[in-house]
Amino acid sequence: MRVVEKHQRGAALMVAMVMIFMLSVMGISAMRTSTLEKRMTTNAIQSSTTLQAAESATEQMLNSTQTLREAAENPDTIVTIDTDVVRADIGLSNTSEIVYVGDGPAFGYSADFMTLRYVAQGDSEIESVRARSIVRQGAKRVVPRP
Fold first, then answer.
1. Residue 134: how many CB atoms within 10 A of its CB?
2. Where are the beta strands (DSSP E) in the chain?
3. What's the rounded Cα separation, in Å, for the pair 117 and 139?
4. How far apart are CA 70 and CA 52, in angstroms?
């Protein structure tokens, strides 16, 4: 019987190790990408939350007859409402201000009416993630002349 000597050099082991290394790098890259995407999504949600809260604060000011009357009666005063309790669970601070900026003619109405003009501002912030939105809206209200 003849004995055949086989010379093994470990090529299969080297190929397997290179493949395992490449798969590990791909796995780590996928984990980092998903972590980054999660952060981006969270930031987008928090930015949207602050924007909606600021818009809501200005709408609250402009839809309150009492607040509009108070602002018109005190033209040199900024009327402020602090609404921090809206979302205390996520650390959302929210304030709103309204300023009476003057009156003028009510176009399209008789001379018995006038237009009161206001500027409302809502400021909303989630400090822990540094997300902040400021919304300013102008509004007018047509009222009978006194």
1. 13
2. 79-82, 92-105, 113-126, 131-144
3. 6
4. 25
